[in-house]
Amino acid sequence: MNRKLILRAVAGAALLTAASALHAPRAEAATRKFCYELLFKDDRNDCPVAGDGGVRRACQQKNMNFIDAPDGTYTNPVGQVFEVWDKDAGGVDEYIGTWHIGNTGTRCVTFEWENAAYSKGEANPDPYIVWRPRVKKGGVSAYVQLENADGADSGGVSWRDFALTNCAAGAACSVPNYWLISTDSSTLRGGRPQILDSAEHMLSVFGSIMDAGEIRALWPASGSSTQSRTHFQIEGDAGAGGPGDENRAFMSQSCAHELGHVLQAQLFEQDDLVNNCGLNGGGHSITGQEYQSCATTEGFADYVAAASMWNPDVNTSSPARFGFNYETAAPQSNVCASNAGIEGQVARALWDLDDANNEAAAGAAVSPAGVGSADAYNATSVNVAARWDAVPDGTGDEQDRENDNHGVNMYDYADGPASDFANSATARQTIFAHNCLTSQDQN
Amino acid sequence: MRCFRTLSLMTLLATSTGAALATEPVAPVSFEDAGRLMELELRLAGGLTAQEVAVTQVFTRFRGVVVDEGARLAGGLPVRRALAVNDLGGGRVRVSLAPVPAGQALPDGVYAQFLEIEAQPRALTMEPFMVLHPIYLEVVGGVARRLDMPTYSARVEPTVRGLDKLGRAVQVQPGSRGAAALAPIGDALDVQVERGDAFAVPGDERNEN
């Protein structure tokens, strides 16, 4: 090898070494592990608690006996979103990252430090959490963001005053106690995590068939209702001196019900649902008589709320709202034909289509000998809901905007094209004969 | 002046034929909460009668301090108190909320109470259920007045200025902490690594999950 080639080889090796050094992690680089447990005060009373049959994830999860905070029932904010920040007492805090809480109990996050821009040369972070009123389910692209009346995101909760100090590499850096999002469930702030937890239940069951992206929820508002496929509101005292004095943050099924409307609107690819709830004036109730379009739309949302809180695959599930139990076999009215316009009866039909408990017919649903009317079909919750996706656009029979008082109803649900249930005798028996919906309008 | 939620604007809008707001079922117990200081009227529906309803008043905040669940007394007054239900007929009942005898005043401060309305329907088609209604009071110089939820919230949980991850000013509230006298068994050891990754660039939410 001549001298020129040797020099080139030496120079090349030096360059390679220098390049490797640039790309290799610095010797001191390491992640930090930060562990915490968040809780919120939970006084919701229309969802199952630990030990109830068919409970999915319990409301009022823990009875906490605190030394230095109010005792009572608290719940981990599963799915809710928080940010981790680095506190700089003499300057501007650095934002590290955003996560959502994966499950109950003590949880941990890990994040890069030395190699991250946010470290700004500090040896160790002083981490703290800012909770944001947003909820997201792992593996689901839809998420719910709470907003104020002015349309701005609702405020968060910060534990900056309790930031840990010098979180070093090599060992978990743990919050030594519980960090409490709320200790009073009846405030604006106290309502937020309760509503979001109710939303998480719904997203856990039905989120896989929902549109990706943000669903905004106004709280508090005058009446719980759904405005579009991406917007709903929850009733609470907004302080305007008008109606809306009922706090539905305490009702887990209120949020899940409205998300049921959002889900149906998304599956219809519409921003409203064509129905009429005016048979008996304003409003509708679970047991009242309504046009069948109202009973069907509202009954579907009632079912979504129930299936979000109780697992239909568990025989001991006993879902109920306002004293109306969706597992009860006997139809609400003892005159079979009079059940066609009762939204609770539609909810029962959809629950029966879903649930594992196949009970015999009772009350007005008992058919003449030889005619089956038992609950006989077991679908999945996603299949029950996704049926709306196959209903075509249009204003005619078996179309999503059928514009008469009795359509869209359960015949449009069950009989339309691409229905899993149209040709199943047991599905039709479960929906119609078992729940006395046979007299709904077949148009 | 407040009115029945069944007459709310949202509900009236929902009665129109065609495209409509999808709303919520009304409860069999609703409140005519016109902000009267120490009384509340309930309207019963779905066949409920006054004899099927029990109302309990529960102090949840007393003189500005949250009351422990399970506490028996706060400031010498019972935390939980069954209220007499006065049947007005026509599905209306009235309860008196006064926690102290006439002529006496609560000590100055902010108060919250839950009314727990437990319904025990006799109808075979219905089961017992409960509805919760919070009521807020402020006493200044011995004179009490009702607060709405936003005013009450601002009194007891003030907001401060914070930053979002883009450095914009946003409202936040200081979190509190609690040390458990007895940690729930099982949870203390339930340490799991969180899903998701941090993202290093403020404002880049692509990795948020």
Q: TL;DR of this structure?
A:
Chain A is of the alpha+beta class and 443 residues long.
Largest interface: A-B, 131 and 101 residues
- End-to-end C-alpha gap of chain B: 44 Å
* Helical segment count of chain B: 2
| Number of helical elements of chain A | 8
Instruction: Name the helix and strand elements of chain A from N-terminus to C-terminus, one letter apiece.
Output: HEEEEEEEEEEEEHEEEHEHEEHHHH
Choose one word for the global shape of chain A: elongated
Strand runs of chain B, count? 18
Give me the strand/helix succession of chain B. HEEEEEEEEEEEEEEHEEEE
Number of strands of chain A: 18
Output the structural class of chain A: alpha+beta
Query: Beta-strand percentage of chain B?
Result: 35-45%
Report the uncertain regions of chain B: 1-18, 183-209
Helix residue percentage of chain A: 10-25%
Low-confidence stretches of chain A: 1-7, 9-27
Q: Which percent bin holds the helix content of chain B?
A: under 10%
Structure characterization notes:
The complex is a heterodimer of chains A (443) and B (209). Chain A has 443 residues and is an alpha+beta fold. Chain A is built from 8 helices and 18 strands. Among the domains of chain A are: 31-138 and 154-166 and 178-184, no CATH class; 273-443, no CATH class. In chain A, 24% of the residues lie in helices and 20% in strands. In chain A, the strands form 4 sheets. In chain A, strands 5, 6, 8, 9, 10, 13, 14 and 15 form an 8-stranded mixed sheet that branches. A 4-stranded mixed sheet of chain A has the order 3-4-2-12. Chain A has a 3-stranded mixed sheet with strand order 7-1-11, with no helix packed on it. In chain A, helix 4 crosses helix 5 (343-354). Chain A is elongated, with a radius of gyration of 27 Å. By secondary structure, chain B is mainly β. Chain B has one domain. Helix content of chain B is 7%, strand content 41%. Chain B has 2 helices and 18 strands. Chain B has helices at 9-14, 149-156, and strands at 19-20, 22-23, 29-32, 39-44, 53-62, 65-66, 73-74, 77-78, 80-83, 86-89, 92-96, 109-119, 129-140, 143-147, 160-163, 169-174, 176-178, 192-193. Chain B is globular and about 55 Å long. Chain B starts with 8 loop residues before the first helix and ends in a 16-residue tail after the last strand. The model of chain B is unreliable at 1-18 and 183-209 (pLDDT under 50). Chains A and B meet through strand 5, strand 6, strand 7, strand 8 and strand 10 of A and helix 1, strand 1, strand 2, strand 12 and strand 13 of B. Strand 7 (107-112) of chain A pairs parallel with strand 18 of chain B.
